[in-house]
């Protein structure tokens, strides 16, 4: 038999030209059988479904088939046959099998038995070969495609903002420094502060926490833009919802006010979730069956229902009322303090039983760039809160007034010299505009039903962990 063009298994499983000669390549999931035939379940990552390879033992010889164990990589050429077995449409009756690589059963960690997600995190280099992580990473790809498609089809431009920056967008001081200075021999000025003039950029630089500030410049020229890239936060919070390196999608739209920003947030998330339901059916169904029986219902619910909109102040009243009725929270509820995840989840999961958009937060707990309301106390912020996740989106209408923005930046300790270029947009042709940031891995948590953010990104970066 000559060398044949490979058919990916996702395509092979859809074929019905039985009798045709076919070549498939992939990694062995299991091998079982009897003294006459071996059944090899083969997977190449194109789909969660395996193709069954039937190998006649007499034809190949026991010794030849022996090293084909779980994890081995093989190429199989044979005949496509309608499968008599339940739950699979086709199988391949092997004519020739080439072994690319064996996987010693004594040391290959992914044997047939189920592994815990914790264990699989320790072998992140191999976990994409499991059903679970194959499904998750195919869905992750699909969500990225959904995001680009959504914005592209609506006239948004994908705008690339820098990852290295000298300004702290969120003003939260959670940045990773970028330096080429010799840390063993730091030059300090008379005031004892580090002298950055010799550093690579001639000043202190960091990895960005958000592309928003540059995104706003783009919106005030191109009209509608979005960013989609990695962001970095050195917050030392070891939680199932925080990463030190995560991906964020940040649309920014000139002339949008807060209501239109909320409309966009809802429509955008619903579009992505619908994409997962329609285009990742096998993978979502697998995760639903294995990890979270309510996953598909929850996804459908979000697609079909409007998000509840209310102000932070109204949210606080509801929480206080709940406490009065006997509800216990770990953290106190007071107007002016940030909501804890338990408060957010109460509103979403118990009170409204649907996604919630909270607006008009106290200005003290939000960033300097948010548009100030007339009341002098609140800003036009919006957080989208999701079942099981808590905050999935943070955004706002932006302060477009030069003097108000400058004053607020100063009050919040953001130096003019770092953001003069940002302030310039308010001096020259300023306009109302709004935007938000969606945490990509938070979206992934929602569509996969996974509980830990470390399981929805291939190589998670968290405090004390940068392996792989
Ligand atoms: O609410 P955040 O901090 O908002 C911003 O960064 C704005 N500049 C966005 C904008 O208006 N353009 O972050 C936005 C979202 C959060 O709602 C959350 O989903 C996600 O980013 N996020 C994280 N995801 C994983 N790990 C972390 N450490 C995260 N911090 C924020
Ligand atoms: Mg936020």
Automatic annotation (TrEMBL):
Gene3D superfamilies: Bira Bifunctional Protein, Domain 2 (3.30.930.10), Nucleic acid-binding proteins (2.40.50.140)
Name assigned to this protein: Asparagine--tRNA ligase
Pfam families recorded: tRNA-synt_2, tRNA_anti-codon
Swiss-Prot/TrEMBL keywords: Aminoacyl-tRNA synthetase, ATP-binding, Cytoplasm, Ligase, Nucleotide-binding, Protein biosynthesis
Species assigned in the record: Candidatus Aphodosoma intestinipullorum
PANTHER family according to UniProt: ASPARAGINE--TRNA LIGASE, MITOCHONDRIAL-RELATED (PTHR22594:SF34), ASPARTYL/LYSYL-TRNA SYNTHETASE (PTHR22594)
Gene: asnS
Upper classification of the organism: Bacteria, Pseudomonadati, Bacteroidota, Bacteroidia, Bacteroidales
UniProt record similarity statement: Belongs to the class-II aminoacyl-tRNA synthetase family.
Superkingdom of this protein's organism: Bacteria
InterPro entries for the chain: Aa-tRNA-synt_II, aa-tRNA-synth_II, aa-tRNA-synth_II/BPL/LPL, Asn-tRNA-ligase, Asp/Asn-tRNA-synth_IIb, NA-bd_OB-fold, NA-bd_OB_tRNA
């Amino acid at each position: 038999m000559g060398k044949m063009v490979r058919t990916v298994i996702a395509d092979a499983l859809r074929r019905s030209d039985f009798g045709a000669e076919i070549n498939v390549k992939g990694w062995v999931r299991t091998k079982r059988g009897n003294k006459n035939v071996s059944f090899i379940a083969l997977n190449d990552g194109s789909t969660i479904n395996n193709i069954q390879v039937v190998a006649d033992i007499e034809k190949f010889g026991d010794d030849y088939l022996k090293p084909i164990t779980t994890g081995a990589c093989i190429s199989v050429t044979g005949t496509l046959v309608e499968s008599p077995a339940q739950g699979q449409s086709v199988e391949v009756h092997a004519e020739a099998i080439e072994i690319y690589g064996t996987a010693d059963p004594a040391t290959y960690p992914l044997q047939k038995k189920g592994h815990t997600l914790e264990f699989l995190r320790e072998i992140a280099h191999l976990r994409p070969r499991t059903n679970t992580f194959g499904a998750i990473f195919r869905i992750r790809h699909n969500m990225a495609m959904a995001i680009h498609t959504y914005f592209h089809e609506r006239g948004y431009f994908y705008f690339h903002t820098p990852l290295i920056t000298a300004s702290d967008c969120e003003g939260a001081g959670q940045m990773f420094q970028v330096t080429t200075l010799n840390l063993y021999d730091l030059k300090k000025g008379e005031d004892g502060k580090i002298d950055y003039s010799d550093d690579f950029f001639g000043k202190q630089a960091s990895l960005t926490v958000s592309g928003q500030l540059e995104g706003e410049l783009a919106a005030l020229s191109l009209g509608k833009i979005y960013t989609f890239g990695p962001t970095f936060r050195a917050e030392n919070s070891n939680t199932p919802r925080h990463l030190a390196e995560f991906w964020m999608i940040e649309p920014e739209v000139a002339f949008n006010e807060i209501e239109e920003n909320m409309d966009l947030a809802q429509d955008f998330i619903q579009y992505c979730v619908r994409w997962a339901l329609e285009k990742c059916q096998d993978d979502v169904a697998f995760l639903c069956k294995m990890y979270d029986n309510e996953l598909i219902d929850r996804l459908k619910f979000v697609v079909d229902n409007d998000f509840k909109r209310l102000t932070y102040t109204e949210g606080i009243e509801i929480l206080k009322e709940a406490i009065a009725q006997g509800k216990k929270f770990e953290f106190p509820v007071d107007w002016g303090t940030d909501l804890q995840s338990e408060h957010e989840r109460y509103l979403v999961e118990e009170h409204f039983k649907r996604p919630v958009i909270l607006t008009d937060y106290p200005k003290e707990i939000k960033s300097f760039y948010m548009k100030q309301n007339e009341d002098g106390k609140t800003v036009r912020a919006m957080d989208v809160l999701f079942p099981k996740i808590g905050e999935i989106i943070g955004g706002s209408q932006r302060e477009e007034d030069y003097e108000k923005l400058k004053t607020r930046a100063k009050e919040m300790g953001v130096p003019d010299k770092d953001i003069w270029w940002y302030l310039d947009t308010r001096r020259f042709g300023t306009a109302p505009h709004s935007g938000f940031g969606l945490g990509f891995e938070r979206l992934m948590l929602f569509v996969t039903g996974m509980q830990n953010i470390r399981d929805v990104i291939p190589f998670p970066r968290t405090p004390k962990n940068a392996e792989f």
